[in-house]
Design a protein that fits this description.
single chain; alpha/beta; 2,3-Dihydroxybiphenyl 1,2-Dioxygenase, domain 1; four-stranded mixed beta sheet; 5 helices; 8 strands; elongated
Length: about 150
């Protein structure tokens, strides 16, 4: 087991969440889903997405996800950005600004191009600011527009 593992609290829908996440991220697996004796729904589970282990609990409605914690998905190209954006906003997810979205469970994700850091930290402050200004106008990030702005 890895030293630090994200632990996610769901409102009695971890099996649905794990089904979504493992269908979206191709390099994924379910380690286990635990049921309490006499309960139909899962109580807890462990799963892995792209080498990152997660633990999940069907804890009920007391706690909700907030944007204070999000998962950053490093994307190599626009096709990958489009894929994750579409899959994670589908069926009740919501788009936000600057590459952020919430999936239908309320979990926040950042769908970000791999070159965003170099665009925003360009040694030329004017180019970096243009890239930042372009990003601030976007929901889903568009690599070509960001690159053009940062020239």
């Amino acid at each position: 087991m890895q030293k630090i593992t994200p632990f996610l609290w769901f409102d009695n829908n971890i099996e649905e969440a794990i089904e979504l996440y493992t269908s979206v991220f191709k390099n994924s697996k379910v380690h286990n889903i635990n049921h309490m004796p006499g309960m139909d729904k899962a109580f807890s589970a462990t799963f892995e997405l792209e080498g990152q282990e997660f633990m999940a609990l069907n804890g009920g409605p007391m706690f909700k996800f907030t944007e204070a914690v999000s998962f950053y998905v490093n994307c190599q190209d626009q096709q990958e950005i489009d894929y994750y954006w579409e899959k994670l906003t589908a069926n009740g997810g919501s788009e936000s600004r600057c590459g952020w979205l919430k999936d239908k469970f309320g979990l926040s994700w950042q769908i970000i191009p791999a070159n965003l850091g170099e665009l925003l930290h360009n040694p030329d402050p004017a180019k970096a600011q243009k890239a930042m200004n372009a990003m601030m106008q976007m929901g889903k990030l568009d690599i070509a527009t960001l690159e053009a702005a940062g020239k």
